[in-house]
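Weekly sync, protein design subgroup
Attendees: M.S., D.O., the rotation student, P.L. (late)

Item 1: inverse folding check
M.S. brought a backbone from last month's batch and wanted to see whether the design step gives back something sensible before we order anything. D.O. pointed out we never logged the input encoding, so this time it goes straight into the notes. Structure tokens as presented (76 positions):
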């Protein structure tokens, strides 16, 4: 039940409007898994989006290994 906060970086900058579904914060389930979707809302299609997931303990201290980053690629 850890809280994760997600941040997006779009490449190239300013290409497309992206939204995290349901929003930029999610809680892990009993197995420690959290899921969000990256949705392209309009504008030009970006090449890729870097997503950073930040996890913290209840006292605000970062969880070891946080942030975790991954890339979502968009194809024409």
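Designed sequence read out in the meeting:
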């Amino acid at each position: 039940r850890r809280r994760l906060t997600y941040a997006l970086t779009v490449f190239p900058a300013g290409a497309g409007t992206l939204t995290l579904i349901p929003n930029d914060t999610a809680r892990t389930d009993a197995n420690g898994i959290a899921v969000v979707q990256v949705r392209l809302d309009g504008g030009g299609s970006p090449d890729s989006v870097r997503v950073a997931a930040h996890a913290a303990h209840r006292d605000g201290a970062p969880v070891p290994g946080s942030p975790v980053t991954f890339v979502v690629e968009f194809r024409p």
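Discussion: The mean pLDDT is 87. Residues 3 and 27 are 5 Å apart (CA to CA).
Action: P.L. to compare against the previous round before Friday.
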